[in-house]
Design goal:
It is built from 2 helices and 4 strands; from the N terminus they run βαββαβ. The chain is an alpha+beta fold. The chain has a single domain, classed as 2-Layer Sandwich (Alpha-Beta Plaits). A two-stranded antiparallel sheet has the order 1-4.
Length: 63
Amino acid sequence: MAREVYVEKDDCTSCMQCANNLPEVFQMDDENLAEAHDSAGADEDAIQDEIDSCPGVCIHWKE
């Protein structure tokens, strides 16, 4: 089973980096905070790259 990713919205800086780089996985909500809408939208390596480069350190894998 594929891993699920989520965004800790309290830590999101609204930089839009994840939504711009991987719109298949991330989008901005009505409050201009990132959210994961499709964990299967990209391979895990691409998602991990976004996790590693997130300025707000707010993207995580669900345990």
